[in-house]
């Protein structure tokens, strides 16, 4: 079954209430996707559901619609109470939690339901204030949520519907013990919906323990590639040839996401592309939440055409009309390849995926592509190859980068100054695994510490640190 709209079926025919149909139509969504067609009759009737759908399949609405519909209907409990939500959605990363909230809020507004988002890496004060004011639905990352539970700011004893999204990714991040404790704190009679691409790494144990008489709905095989993607493998002769090719791939007019293995390399490439006249921003785990939000907003608005990211962005970041995903560094395993690639060709749209391969990487990539069930013939490539120029299309106008701000003098013991740019802060997991909430943590670097070179990425400036300076780790 392909991930395209199903024009012969309407949301109303599936039992979706009229206010929600209108809210969806106001967002330009008039036809359901296959996973929504398959799951909505069961989820709207209160059944537990195990949904298996590949990235970009439309599963966010598959659980958001029944949650709002049932909480506004047969499960409505009158006046909302401080710190006692009736709906709970768990997501592995704060990016995904934010994306879910953005999709959920227009539906919740149709019934005056209040939604709040909880994740680590930022102060908890606003989240606590929202809970105290009363919320209906909480979208949360496990670590911070458990922290707030321990502090008695939130209780899950009134939760009627619980959703686990990207459960396999939670397992990969080590969150299953935290998730288990959270689910245990919800009422046994509540409805539970679990969405996961695979059932390995302990996800099957969650299903057996917490889902009751669940209905399995699977759209395409787990970890299967999206049909609307066109995959390319570009072989290069060496590092310099790769650098020129990546710059050419980034130079087109449409949005591009470039994936790197490390935070340092993502930051470096974003700076290099910006200096070459291609406005770029980075996204990785060392950015504060404010910096991540700012960089994503710049990319979404088109101010930056290129997002250079580590795997923190491989799930949950949905920006419309990403034309090209480039694996500048091939990922370590096939699931990461598919999730990275899923940033394009989402929900029926088309897109291209390029993997750039050095000679020493060719053997490992061949194994990875075989596991991902992708058949593609590698092409020897340079920045001027005809097939590369054809893929890139029109070249975007050169944008002169803003001049770098002068680095202020350091007194040898002060904190790094990072005005406006990527700021320190652990990210991606919305809290630490095994119940540790995300929060600020500082480390001291001694005289042997490596100073940071000044760089400009995503509109900000990083200045060199003195040997004995402190730097924020998040």
Can you offer a commentary on this structure?
The protein is an alpha/beta fold and 474 residues long. It has two domains: 12-219, Rossmann fold; 229-392, Rossmann fold, CATH 3.40.50. 32% of the residues lie in helices and 16% in strands. The chain is built from 15 helices and 18 strands. It has helices at residues 18-26, 34-44, 59-72, 94-109, 125-133, 142-150, 167-172, 176-184, 203-210, 239-249, 263-275, 289-301, 334-341, 362-371, 386-392, and strands at residues 49-53, 87-90, 115-118, 137-140, 161-164, 191-195, 215-219, 229-235, 255-259, 280-283, 306-309, 322-327, 351-357, 379-380, 442-444, 455-457, 460-462, 470-472. The strands form four sheets. It has a seven-stranded parallel sheet with strand order 3-4-2-5-6-1-7, sandwiched between helices. A seven-stranded parallel sheet has the order 10-11-9-12-13-8-14, sandwiched between helices. Strands 15-18 form a two-stranded antiparallel sheet. β16 and β17 (460-462) form a beta hairpin. The longest helix is centred in the first third of the chain and has 16 residues, at 94-109. The radius of gyration is 23 Å and the shape is globular. The two termini are 43 Å apart.
């Amino acid at each position: 079954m392909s991930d395209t709209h199903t024009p012969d079926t309407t949301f109303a025919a599936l039992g979706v209430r009229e206010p929600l149909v209108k809210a969806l139509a106001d967002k330009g969504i008039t036809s359901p996707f296959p996973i929504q067609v398959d799951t909505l009759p069961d989820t709207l009737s209160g059944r537990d559901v195990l949904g298996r759908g590949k990235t970009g399949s439309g599963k966010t609405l598959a659980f958001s619609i029944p949650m709002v519909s049932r909480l506004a209907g047969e499960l409505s409990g009158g006046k909302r109470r401080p710190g006692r939500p009736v709906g709970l959605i768990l997501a592995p990363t704060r990016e995904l939690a934010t994306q879910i909230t953005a999709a959920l809020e227009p539906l919740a507004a149709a019934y005056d339901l209040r939604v709040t988002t909880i994740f680590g890496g930022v102060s908890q004060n606003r989240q606590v204030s929202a809970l105290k004011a009363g919320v209906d639905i909480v979208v949360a990352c496990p670590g911070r949520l458990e922290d707030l539970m321990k502090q008695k700011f939130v209780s899950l004893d009134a939760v009627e519907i619980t959703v686990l999204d990207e459960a396999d990714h939670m397992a990969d991040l080590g969150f299953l013990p935290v998730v288990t404790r959270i689910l245990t704190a919800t009422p046994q009679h509540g409805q539970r919906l679990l969405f996961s691409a695979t059932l390995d790494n302990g996800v099957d144990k969650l299903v057996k323990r917490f889902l009751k008489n669940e209905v399995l709905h699977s759209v395409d095989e787990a970890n299967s590639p999206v049909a609307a993607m066109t995959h390319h493998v570009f072989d290069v002769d060496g590092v310099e040839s790769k650098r020129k090719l990546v710059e050419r791939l980034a130079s087109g007019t449409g949005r591009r996401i470039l994936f790197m293995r490390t935070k340092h390399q993502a930051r470096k490439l974003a700076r290099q592309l910006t200096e070459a006249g291609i406005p770029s921003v980075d996204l990785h785990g060392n950015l504060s939440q404010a910096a991540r939000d700012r960089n994503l907003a710049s990319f979404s608005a088109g101010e930056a055409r290129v997002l250079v990211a580590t795997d923190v962005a491989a799930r949950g970041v949905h920006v419309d009309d990403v034309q090209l995903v480039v694996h500048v560094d091939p990922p370590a395993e096939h699931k990461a390849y598919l999730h990275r690639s899923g940033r394009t060709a989402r929900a029926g749209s088309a897109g291209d995926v390029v993997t750039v391969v050095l000679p020493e990487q060719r053997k490992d990539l061949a194994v990875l592509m075989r596991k991902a069930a992708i058949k593609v013939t590698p092409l020897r490539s340079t920045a001027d190859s005809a097939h590369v120029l054809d893929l890139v299309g029109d070249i975007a106008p050169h944008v002169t980068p803003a001049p770098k701000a002068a680095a202020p003098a350091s007194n040898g013991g002060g904190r790094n100054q990072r005005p406006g740019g990527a700021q320190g802060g652990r990210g991606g997991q919305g809290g630490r695994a095994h119940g540790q909430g995300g929060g600020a943590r500082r480390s001291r670097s001694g005289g042997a510490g490596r100073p940071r070179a000044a760089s400009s990425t995503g509109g900000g400036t990083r200045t060199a640190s003195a040997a004995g300076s402190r730097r924020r780790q998040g």
